[in-house]
Specification:
Blueprint lengths: L1 H18 L4 H13 L1 H27 L5 H23 L4 H9 L2 H14 L4 H10 L2 H17 L6 H27 L6 H36 L1
Length: 230
């Protein structure tokens, strides 16, 4: 039970950190909820959260096949450290909502994928709009692949099915919870204050990611020192 609780808490924290930064999904929820009400914004968030959990599940399924191979685990640890530093600095140095969204929108791969999905499926319902907005961002899958390998190698997520399900539940709960709060705030007129609030929370998530990167880097350094000692 202890391992399951830790797995769920790990999923909840990581899901929240990934949901807060300003991006197409957050802006879509804010705009639609402010215009059409809480219900529409919530269903967009539900679609986005569902795709987020699916990406997370795919990442765990793919990483599990490599779990236990020392060379792969070492590579994942170093790469995850660099990736956390990159994301932390990116979130921390964001100056405005326009700048943050331009980075996401100007990504040629993401924009092309989203355009192709829109042309193919013609999403009309709020749920499918949120689903496709997240599906079109391959960076989300990359993020979860890196985190899944790191979480299981460190024992933060139990590699057995119960631990993975608990992590997925935590991710889904945190993501949908954030989107629900965002939709409620936008639909009740808090959207006018959302830009400064979102930027503050994005920078806070950047600080949290840099702290995690520092802890992760210290652990890698300790492992190298122990290896040289032996």
């Amino acid at each position: 039970m202890r391992e399951v609780i830790i797995s769920g808490l790990t999923g909840w924290i990581s899901g929240l950190l990934l949901s807060i930064p300003v991006g197409p999904v957050n802006l879509t929820i804010m705009n639609e909820a402010a215009r059409w009400g809480f219900r529409r914004g919530w269903f967009i968030g539900l679609g986005a959260a569902s795709m987020e959990v699916l990406y997370c599940a795919i990442a765990f399924a793919g990483v599990s096949s490599f779990f236990g191979q020392p060379l792969v685990e070492s590579f994942m640890e170093v790469f995850s450290f660099l990736f956390l530093v990159f994301l932390g600095l990116k979130f921390l140095l964001t100056r405005s909502v326009a700048a943050a969204t331009s980075v996401s929108r100007n990504s040629r791969v993401e924009h092309r994928i989203e355009a192709q999905l829109d042309a193919r499926f013609h999403p009309r319902s709020a749920f499918w709009i949120g689903w496709i907005r997240t599906l079109a961002n391959p960076g989300v899958l990359l993020f979860w692949i890196i985190l899944a390998g790191n979480f299981m190698s460190r024992g933060w997520v139990d590699p057995r099915w119960a631990g993975k399900l608990a992590c997925l539940l935590g991710v889904g709960t945190a993501t949908l919870g954030w989107f629900t709060a965002l939709s409620w705030g936008a639909s009740h007129g808090v959207g006018r204050l959302s830009e400064s609030a979102l930027l503050k929370m994005e920078r806070a998530s950047g600080v949290a990611l840099l702290v995690l990167a520092a802890v992760h880097g210290a652990h890698i350094a300790w492992q190298l020192a122990a290896h040289r000692h032996h």
